[in-house]
Specification:
The chain has 74 residues and is an all-alpha fold. The protein is built from five helices and no strands.
């Protein structure tokens, strides 16, 4: 998720263009991300030792940005 949040932030147009490759699975992906939203920060903090710049991708705002981006791309 951290990587997706970085891609959404830095390369949204390229990411959006590539979504055609998973168009048939996009609704399921959005659903899975939505289910992770309430608990995302805890596993993110426990799973990695982030760099200072990577900390922002471990917040609920990061998963929310991915969710909103993908939901708007359907």
């Amino acid at each position: 998720m951290r990587r997706l949040a970085a891609v959404v932030e830095r390369h949204p147009d390229e990411f959006r263009a590539g979504l055609v490759e998973i168009e048939d699975r996009l609704a399921r992906l959005v659903d899975r991300i939505d289910r992770l939203r309430p608990v995302y920060e805890t596993p993110a903090v426990n799973d990695v030792n982030p760099t200072r710049s990577g900390l922002r991708y471990m917040t609920s705002a990061a998963i929310d940005s991915v969710f909103e981006f993908l939901r708007g791309s359907r």
